[in-house]
Write a structure and sequence with these properties.
CATH superfamily of the largest domain: Cytochrome c-like domain
CATH topology of the largest domain: Cytochrome Bc1 Complex, Chain D, domain 2
CATH class of the largest domain: Mainly Alpha
Number of domains: 3
Number of strands: 5
Order of helices and strands: HHHHHHHHHEEEEEHH
CATH architecture of the largest domain: Orthogonal Bundle
Number of helices: 11
Structural class: alpha+beta
Largest sheet: 5 strands, antiparallel
Strand order of the largest sheet: 4-3-2-1-5
Shape: flat
Length: 253
């Protein structure tokens, strides 16, 4: 009887799928991921954030069904090439290799996000504060002041949060993003963008009034991003730059 019960139990267990797949997660070429990260930051980072976790207008792509169903860029590519004008997303004329790199970057980021519960932040204050001060003076001091807007910044944020804020500042429509439209007549309108694509642009001015315009060759549209300098630096930071700047900023208490 005991043998019979064990045999039945074995048959039942054999029909139950394992709780976790034994297939190892895919590996992506690190060089391709880094190229994709740089291309994404310069092309898509304005809306989706430089880490693809959502930004000023675009959603979090690491939770996107389209990205999760994509394997090699076959779903991501058409969206990049054709855009989504109805949702305010312009098209981008990227090469097949660039699209593959972006796809690899997004998929690698999804895997990292899935494993975040097992990730432990180690000590990130490993840089040279003196070198960080020199980097700050050369690249940040024209906009920021250690005795002004950054005074006591290290007392407000832990090192990991502080590092994240200068690598990827929080962008919202209410801070830093404005658009100016100059009509052929010379009349200008400025305010916070409500919609911005290849065909139309709309904004709400400082009085709260809504204005919409069709984009033509004679209509000048200028987008202003207070965080553009941060986005530009993302493409130029070396690991040493980031660690050195962090080591300097944590001294501002």
């Amino acid at each position: 009887m005991i043998k019979m019960k064990l045999h039945v139990a074995a048959l039942i267990l054999a029909t139950i799928p394992p709780a976790f797949s034994q297939t190892p997660p895919p590996k992506y070429d690190p060089a391709s991921v880094e190229r994709g990260r740089a291309t994404f930051a310069s092309t898509c980072g304005f809306c989706h954030g430089t880490s693809a976790k959502g930004g000023e207008k675009g959603p979090d792509l690491l939770r996107s069904v389209l990205v999760l169903h994509d394997e090699h860029g076959e779903s991501i590519g058409p969206v990049i090439l054709n855009g989504r004008p109805d949702k305010g997303m312009p098209h981008f004329a990227l090469s097949a290799a660039q699209i593959t790199d972006i796809a690899n970057f997004l998929h690698a980021s999804v895997l990292s996000a899935e494993d975040r519960d097992n990730y432990k932040i180690l000590n990130i204050v490993t840089g040279d504060a003196k070198a960080g001060a020199a980097y700050f003076a050369a690249n940040c001091q024209s906009c920021h002041s250690v005795t002004g807007d950054l005074k006591g910044i290290a007392a407000k944020y832990d090192p990991a949060t502080l590092q994240g804020r200068f690598i990827e500042p929080n962008q919202t429509q209410s801070e830093g993003i404005t658009v100016t439209v100059t009509l052929p007549s010379g009349q200008t309108f400025a305010g916070v963008p409500v919609n911005y694509d290849d065909f139309n642009v709309s904004l709400r001015d400082d009085k709260g009034d809504y204005h919409a315009f069709r984009r033509t060759k004679d209509t000048k549209v200028e987008l202003h991003n207070r965080f553009q300098a941060h986005l530009d630096l993302v493409l130029r930071y070396s690991d040493d730059d980031i660690h050195n700047l962090t080591a300097y900023l944590v001294t501002l208490k």
